[in-house]
């Protein structure tokens, strides 16, 4: 790990602090940085309750979609839920299958194979479903860009309802309904739902239409939390409600597959948070679709057989370990291909880059070099790419600017996937480099830490941590608050961990002494001086049955 730039956010204006006089200054600062302008917004934000939720019938085409599903239920039609192969898509598929089954629907799942079929709808899969007697396909987490595929299915007489959350460009597919809060004509108050969030609103609308109790829906919120956090959509507005309530359900889950997966991951039911989803549950579910078939993850979520749950969880554990190994190998190859002078956008690839890990490699390149990155699996005639980006560069907009060279495209400002004829690779790379050079010119492309407030250590105490916990759930868009304390005295410094990779500090300021841990910062131990400026989060060190507050050190500099 290396030192990073420090971006200290501006303090809230004095008038704002006066308005928030009933709250401690650090908490008022956090409200300010999260865009909370009025006192009336604070209680819904902290409570993260249903006041944050939108009416599902404000989503585009929802009325039309409901009438078609209601018709299918009355007629006993065969339906298929067509999902994506990532954690969001897997959770979305499980949610709609189980929700529709409660209503007596005849419904089956279909998730494409990443390596053999690629992302999204394919005409061959839709034609196969039609010949199997399926008359209605409901997509989850995909379909918004599948114009030709939907047209082919419609000619067969197969109705398609799209539920998705990816950027919706014009024209839209001529599906029976396109339920997507990112549509240009959408009036839904919050456009940044995950795919599983849109699926949940779809089910909510259906339950309401049929006079079902909304309480029955809440058993699916564990799936909504996993898919929302794993897909890295902002944990703000309605997503705060979905994740907070979903975590409550997840910590009480009776899903046998999840319980087995948690056991193998060393997680404790009752204390799961968004980090456990981001670092443990999400990657394991994603591993299924990266290396094999995502139906393994789907089956794990819905099984009621203890032996099957155990076997599936063990299989995912092994695939996750293999995924980690392949990612590290591919990352090493990718870094070898980078030029000596790092360009504003990184584009690397090869025939030996596994399609299932190119997105992970791109993310690691972004973390290390702070550049948007594209990693490609290059085939003889067709290549597939995965992109990750930085806040200063909208990667999906950039790719749309080069769309003439692409076969398929989907994604968000920070992440995207696409395929293209291999012969177009040089043209795509040139197009992207021109866009990145123009947009990133003059920007200091160095990773930075965002610091919310500067505070002396003696002001931090147990009540401060309790106050910060009220801002949870944390995630993209609502990060864990980061503090800066200056002129902190170091009274002990040592390296710890199985490989001595972590830096352990004991520090003092005034009459206050704190323990701190800097994960993977041991290589900076020689730079520790008697007095430091520390950047950190507040965390909890669990030792046996005891818990003690500690500093999670992110960076430091000589005072």
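^ structure tokens above, recovered residues below v
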């Amino acid at each position: 790990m290396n030192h990073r730039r420090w971006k200290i956010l501006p303090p809230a204006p004095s008038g704002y602090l006066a308005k928030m006089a009933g709250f401690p200054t650090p908490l008022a600062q956090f409200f300010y940085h999260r865009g909370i302008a009025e006192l009336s917004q604070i209680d819904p934000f902290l409570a993260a309750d249903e006041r944050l939720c939108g009416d599902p019938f404000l989503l585009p085409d929802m009325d039309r979609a409901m009438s078609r599903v209601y018709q299918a239920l009355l007629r006993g039609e065969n339906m298929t839920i067509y999902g994506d192969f990532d954690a969001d898509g897997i959770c979305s598929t499980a949610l709609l299958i189980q929700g529709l089954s409660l209503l007596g629907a005849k419904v089956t799942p279909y998730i494409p194979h990443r390596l053999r079929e690629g992302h999204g709808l394919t005409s061959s899969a839709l034609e196969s479903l039609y010949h199997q007697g399926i008359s209605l396909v409901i997509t989850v987490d995909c379909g918004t860009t599948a114009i030709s595929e939907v047209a082919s299915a419609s000619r067969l007489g197969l109705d398609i309802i799209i539920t998705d959350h990816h950027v919706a460009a014009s024209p839209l597919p001529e599906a029976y309904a396109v339920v997507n809060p990112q549509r240009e004509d959408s009036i839904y108050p919050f456009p940044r739902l995950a795919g599983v969030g849109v699926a949940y609103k779809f089910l909510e609308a259906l339950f309401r239409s049929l006079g079902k109790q909304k309480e029955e829906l809440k058993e699916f919120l564990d799936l909504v939390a996993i898919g929302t956090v794993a897909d890295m959509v902002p944990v703000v507005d309605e997503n705060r409600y979905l994740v907070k309530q979903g975590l409550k359900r997840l910590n009480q889950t009776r899903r046998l597959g999840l319980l087995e997966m948690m056991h193998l991951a060393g997680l404790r039911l009752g204390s799961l948070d968004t980090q456990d989803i981001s670092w443990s549950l999400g990657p394991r579910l994603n591993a299924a679709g990266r290396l094999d078939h995502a139906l393994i993850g789907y089956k794990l979520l819905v099984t009621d057989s203890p032996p099957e749950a155990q076997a599936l969880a063990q299989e995912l554990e092994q695939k996750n370990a293999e995924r980690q190994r392949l990612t590290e190998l591919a990352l090493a190859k990718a870094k070898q291909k980078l030029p000596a002078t790092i360009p504003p956008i990184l584009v690397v690839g090869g025939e030996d880059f596994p399609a299932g890990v190119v997105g992970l490699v791109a993310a690691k390149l972004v973390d290390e070099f702070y550049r948007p990155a594209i990693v490609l699996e290059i085939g003889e005639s067709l290549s597939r790419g995965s992109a990750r980006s930085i806040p200063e560069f909208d990667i999906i907009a950039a790719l749309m600017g080069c769309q003439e060279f692409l076969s398929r495209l989907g994604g968000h400002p920070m992440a995207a996937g696409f395929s293209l004829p291999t012969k177009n690779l040089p043209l795509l790379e040139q197009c992207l480099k021109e866009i990145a050079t123009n947009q990133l010119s003059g920007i200091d492309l160095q990773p930075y830490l965002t610091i919310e407030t500067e505070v002396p250590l003696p002001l931090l105490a147990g009540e401060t941590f309790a106050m910060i916990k009220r801002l949870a759930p944390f995630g993209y868009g609502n990060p864990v608050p980061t503090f800066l304390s200056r002129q902190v005295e170091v009274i002990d410094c040592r390296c710890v961990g199985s490989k001595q990779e972590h830096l352990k500090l004991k520090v003092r300021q005034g009459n206050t002494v704190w323990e701190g841990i800097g994960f993977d910062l041991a290589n900076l131990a020689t730079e520790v001086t008697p007095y430091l400026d520390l950047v950190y989060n507040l965390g909890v060190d669990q030792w046996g049955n005891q818990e003690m507050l500690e500093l999670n050190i992110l960076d430091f500099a000589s005072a």
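The domain at 338-440 is CATH 3.10.310.30 (Diaminopimelate Epimerase; Chain A, domain 1).
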